[in-house]
Design goal:
Strand content: 15-25%
EC number: 3.5.99.6
Number of strands: 10
Helix content: 25-40%
GO molecular function: glucosamine-6-phosphate deaminase activity; identical protein binding
Domain Glucosamine/galactosamine-6-phosphate isomerase: 13-226
Order of helices and strands: EHEHEEHEHEEHEHEHEH
Distance between the termini: 11 Å
Number of domains: 1
CATH class: Alpha Beta
Keywords: Allosteric enzyme, Carbohydrate metabolism, Hydrolase
Protein name: Glucosamine-6-phosphate deaminase
Structural class: alpha/beta
Number of helices: 8
């Protein structure tokens, strides 16, 4: 696992946006997996700036969702489809036809999960999957004790995750759905490059367990240790509990600049 410690979220966003730009330069039709929430916003802002400056061309890129709430009506502003369209697809100048995601309002949710899992494979697989991490170590909505071999499926949100997400629903936890569709950990691990961005002291313990702890279902993000190309980008606050922080700084500083992430 590659660990990169940056001064702040903006720097992390710019670093990851540069990696996406390099991916698009050699594979213009890359399938980019995106995450929602506040953590990846610096990435999308930096990538949009690169596109507007003519430094990246996403015109042939494809976008896919990591997860989706179950039960929100189509077009709900906090459905993850709406969020991705608003924060990623539209700013990058893409069309909705470039976007794929699970149907959280389907009558047959289990069928919708299986269909989306198949669709990712039929699309050639995800080239780069962006990830955030929960305070309990979840990725996507794979909560603690999720199977490390799990596929796209419906999950019940923990109370802590609903509390964390209430800020997107006018701080009203009663509006936060109880269930989601999420790519499973096994599905996530099939992406060619996994990039996790974590910022803030509140994520420090989860980051330390992910990077330096054992691979365990109790910390779903620890499964990234099993991936051949996983990058964890953290700011100083999120890195504050890493025992090997100095080693990670030195290792990345010695890496040739042309290699990027």
């Amino acid at each position: 696992m590659e660990v990169v410690i940056v001064p702040d979220a903006r720097t992390g966003g710019e670093l990851i946006a540069a990696a996406i730009g390099r991916l698009l330069s050699h594979k213009p039709d890359a399938l980019l997996g995106v995450a929602t929430g506040s953590s990846p916003l610096p990435i999308y802002e930096a990538l949009t700036a690169k596109v507007r400056a003519g430094e990246a061309d996403p015109s042939r890129a494809r976008i896919c969702q990591l997860d989706e709430y179950v039960g929100l009506p189509p077009g709900h502003p906090e459905s993850y489809r709406s969020v991705v369209l608003r924060e990623v697809v539209e700013p990058l100048g893409l069309t909705e036809s470039s976007f794929m995601g699970p149907d959280g309002s389907a009558e047959d949710i289990e069928g919708a999960c299986a269909a989306y899992d198949r669709a990712l494979g039929e699309a050639g697989g995800v080239d780069l999957q962006l990830l955030g991490i929960g305070t309990d170590g979840h990725i996507g909505f794979n909560e603690p004790c999720s199977s490390l071999a799990s596929r796209t499926r419906i999950k019940t949100l923990t109370e802590q995750t609903r509390v964390d997400n209430a800020r997107f629903f006018d701080n009203d936890i009663d509006q936060v759905p109880h269930h989601v569709i999420t790519q499973g950990i096994g599905t996530i691990l099939e992406a060619r490059h996994l990039v996790l961005l974590a910022t803030g002291e509140g994520k420090a313990e989860a980051v330390a367990q992910t990077v330096e702890g054992p691979v365990a279902a109790l910390v779903p993000a620890s499964a990234l240790q099993l991936h051949p190309h996983a990058t964890v980008v953290v700011d100083e606050a999120a890195a504050s509990k890493l025992k090997l922080a100095d080693y990670f700084r030195a290792t990345y500083a010695a890496k040739p600049a042309w290699q990027g992430l």
